[in-house]
Structures
1.
Amino acid sequence: MFYFPNPCGELTVGILRSQFNCEGETIPLTFFYPADESDGKNAKYSFAEALFGHPISEAKTNFFSEAPISQHKEKYPVIFYSHGYGSYEMSNSVLCGDLASMGFVVIAIGHTGEATAVRLKDGTIIPMDETHSDEMNVPEKEEILQKIMMEVAAKDFKEENYGTFIEAGRQFCDSHAKNKRMELWTKRIRAAADYMEEVNKSNYLLAGHLDLIPGFGITGHSFGGGAAISVCREDSRFVCGIDVDGANLEEDYGQDIRKPFLCIGTEITSKLLSGIYLSNTENTYQLVIKDVEHMGFTDLVFFPDIAEMMGIPLGSMKGNKLAAILAQYHADFFRKYLLKEDLYLEMPDESVAILKFREKKC
């Protein structure tokens, strides 16, 4: 049996599937939202094709399908979540559910043709496009990326090495097989934001309950975290963002985001994001978490046996501990910069993580 942790907040979490069209493609969405009660219908985690046929896809979550939205508040702030390249819509459901249980509506977007697979409302399964799959497996480029990361890992994370890290980040971007896809991912997320107007007017569960006035927050893992950078820069409706262990893979590396931004990740990824950390003219943070590998930032951290079977390193930090850190810093960051609450991001236990902060440039 597979078990998911309970959401960390006080509210029950409802889940709702939807979809919209973007440039001729149907893009699925999963809404995680605060609910008052459940009817006992625990939502299934995912579907077989998204997880290479693994039975974890049939596991029951602690979210409830189409539960009534909570009356705790009239409207709830909105955050988008974007999965990594070749990953899947529910890949960070624990984080999304935690945020929903704390009073946010979180919308996970499935990138059709570039997720392992997506499922539409009529049951249609769209697998990853073979062209894009081939883009993920270019040995020559992978060798270059590994060499860059090894060189970065050998340098101490000190201010005197920022120049080296910025150049390495630029080389990483230029060498990456998927950086030309970032423009499309940015368009999809912006189109999903357009779609929220319709949802807030006519959706039978959510109409009138999305607080669109403050704008949106956004977070994402890996390539989805890179998309959060691009979306924040290009769309004024996105007022702040978080990148979870994703490189900056835009055509022009290291541009000013002009929005409050938090980069969470391993030390290597944090070094590669030095260009963002130093160029952004708004408040900028880096949370460097120890003892975690790249895929440890996803739901896979709760299923180490599966990760071991697939040969995917997660790091030694336990899932519940990491989930608590991610939930805390996401919630505090979005409360401060999306909801404009007067609070500070707490300094972590330095045996677990290091928080760096650069104040807004005047």
2.
Amino acid sequence: MDRRIGTWRKSSKSGNAQGNCVLLRATGSGGVQIGDSKLGADTPTLGVDVNEHGGFITLVKSGQFDH
């Protein structure tokens, strides 16, 4: 993830799609904010610390949420 504070980033796997993407950005306090690309700059955010985010990514990569 790009660690520049305040810069929204989306997965390169999203291609050029502008909707239905999860956005991430680093915060100045060592956390991560998560937003929705459909809502643009007005997206509400969910804030988590970097360890919580890392744990979530580990579970996703392991297939924990696959149906």
3.
Amino acid sequence: MSPTLPRRPDPPAPGRTGRTDGRRPCGPAGRRAAGAGRDFPSYSAAEPTLIGQSVLASQGDVPDNEANAELAAVFTRALVDGLADARGNGRLARELCQKSAALRDLRLYSALTTGKPTRAEMVAVHAEDVVAAYEELTAPHRVG
């Protein structure tokens, strides 16, 4: 039986010799952009709202009219407070909608002591779910 030699790391891809954050290989253009300190424009409140509605729809969830209005309101608040840029616009939208759906499930579980929820109840996201999700997501970022 021959001894097992330790595996050598793969060489970097051509043109990707540097690393910007210690994890991802970066080519020359990436190093220039990373060092330039570029600012990218923030989203408008409508864009994360559309992302959130898309996330909900992709999971089969349906926000009611009040939930859609609340999505727009919380994204406006997140943009004003700088939370959307700090956390990431798309990431905030995705996490908010996932947590809204999870809180909806908990609300249904708590409310229904007998019987089964209807299909419409199981997929409907309400404004109270969105508000509670936003409060949970932003609690660690609030001062006071």
4.
Amino acid sequence: MSDVHAVNATGRPLPERHVAVMDRVGLGLTDAAIGAALNLTFDTVKSHLHQAYDRLGRRTGSRPSPGHGSPACSPVPPR
């Protein structure tokens, strides 16, 4: 999916499966949708995400919802 080769803090590349899962996170897919797309269980997707975050030195796996900060996704004020 991605031509970018993600590397961890030591400069070593991440495993292909971690990159595939992270690519889909970047597209805004849910963990369940990622699992369906890659034929993985929900728990396996979570495991890949935690391992990738650890290898990248991230402390959390939280992510913004798709469209976060986009004017099109801003709440409409009451009339």
